[in-house]
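Below is just one:
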Amino acid sequence: MTNVLFIMADELSWWAFGHTNKNVHTPNLDRLASRGRRFDAAYTPSPMCVPTRAAIACGRYVHEIGYWSSAQPYDGRLPSWGHALKAAGKRCVSIGKLHYRNGTDDTGFEQQIEPIHVPDGIGWVRGLLRRPVCSYDATAELAEMIGPGDSEYIQFDRRVANEAVKWLKNPERRSEEWCAFVSFLSPHYPLIAPPEYYDRYDPQQFEADARPVPDHPILTEIAEFFDHDKFFTPESRGIATASYFGLCSFLDAQVGRVLDALEASGLTEDTLVIFTSDHGEMLGEKGFWTKSCMYESSARVPLIIAGPGVVSGNEVSPVSLIDVAPTICGAMGVRAPGVSGCDLLSPSDPDRTVISEYHDGGSSVGVTLVRWNEGGEAWKLVYYAEGHPPQLFNLSTDPHEENDLASRQESILAGGMERMHGLLDPEQVNERAHDEQQRLVAQLGGRKKMLDVPQWNFTPADSR
């Protein structure tokens, strides 16, 4: 018998826990990493919550399923790994954030405990207005809601941990095969951390001046839309960074409670644990806060798998969060429903190419990340549709993505383009996304009406 405990953070960058950053205190995640397999080149399907969570559910890339943006949430229309488990008679529950359309659509879970869905079943409509890109006037809030304290997100995550512990300790868990998706909000902004975790970090250590946005027309466009950084000072950047790390430690404590409950129930040896985040956080790097761009801090995510049959160590071949669906199904002996992802418990493909896509607020064009290994080096292409210049980085020699090699490595660039076209036509996908979003805007009452919708930075914790 194999159970699956799938734990997800929100906005946790690949470098934001102790295994990869000695300055971050996350002992529980470090222990999980030490006994599990760590995927060091794992990427989100999209550096935005809603489309990524749809892609994870379906095990397919964003362009394959058409849940393009924060206003196009998963509705159960396409089969998910939850549907597959349900059809096979397996118990499957969610505890915490889903960010689907609502709680009544059949998305595969027999029970949703403490769910969060997109507001009003619609989501963030500002992101649909991309031709031309509209204004976004709620960005000052990010720099204002920082420091030690309490928030609805902190309270929510404590409830999620409480419910997960209660569910795992139920004696029924020892007599049935199950999958539980436990989904936290931390360390997603607001960047307010419980004082006992915030106080572990010195904000003065993180004080910094504004960093320049790279000279690229679409990156400039995104940075002007999400113009959070202009509201920060060196001091407040330090406070916000300390708060982010404090939230990472708070998250770790909640994950530790869940893992301890699994151990206390005697189920650790029979349970595959998957831990990841839906995307990362830029935290002021290159002038960006939150996500929505293809730099590593935004698009690369932590991914750990531990449990029966898992050999500990590091995996350097690129993988995607669309791989979670076939991995869950494979572990529980169920056929995955038409997925594009790969079972992470199977041997890796060293020549694999993975992608990430962005078709959401702030960018007038579709953006595609292409990641592969070649000649012992890690390469990354970022393609911007409609004729905008691409970016090319050698992550092995330039992990901070300071040197764009697109004009100097023509053969590598051509090879990356070929790999990308083997998976999608980015120009065709760009037009399809725009067309479908424009039709949705019309259905919702038109651009002018969408501009009148109240603006917000994060989904309220009581959205159902």
Notes: The longest strand covers residues 178-187. Residues 190 and 401 are 27 Å apart (CA to CA).
